[in-house]
Amino acid sequence: MAFTIPEGSFELTVMFFGLTNSPATFQAMMNKLLRNLINIEKVAAFIDDIIVGTEIEEGHDEIVAEVIRRLEKNDLYVKLEKCK
């Protein structure tokens, strides 16, 4: 998401929760980034929470790695202390 003011164009590095529709906009972005993983029911995303759920342990790490790759590619990150 970017915005333009007289001084130039800027892209947000953090989400402004105080602005109208920021959570909905961020949710739409997460849905777009993770669409195919959500569609195969391996990932669920709600605003800034991402859950990776697999029936068996095999393949779980690969899905987590793919989620992290997509976040990095879009200049997003996770706080390891908040991850389980």
Strands, total number = 4
SS element count, helices? 3
Please mark out the parts with pLDDT under 50 across 5 or more consecutive residues, or reply none.
none
Structural class: alpha+beta
Strand coverage percent: 15-25%
Largest sheet: 2 strands, antiparallel
Mean pLDDT: 83
The geometry reads as elongated
- Helicity range: 25-40%
Going across the biggest sheet, name each strand in turn.
Answer: 1-2
- Rg over CA atoms, rounded to whole Å, is 15 Å
**N-to-C series of helices and strands:** EEHHEEH
Terminal CA distance:
29 Å
Write the layout of secondary structure elements.
Layout (H helix, E strand, L loop, with lengths): L1 E4 L2 E4 L10 H12 L1 H5 L3 E4 L2 E4 L7 H14 L11
Antiparallel strand pairs: 1-2, 3-4
Task: Explain what you see.
It is a single chain. This protein has helices at residues 22-33, 35-39, 60-73, and strands at 2-5, 8-11, 43-46, 49-52. With 84 residues, it is of the alpha+beta class. The strands form two sheets. A two-stranded antiparallel sheet has the order 1-2. It has a two-stranded antiparallel ribbon with strand order 3-4. A hairpin with a 2-residue loop joins strand 1 and strand 2. The mean pLDDT is 83.
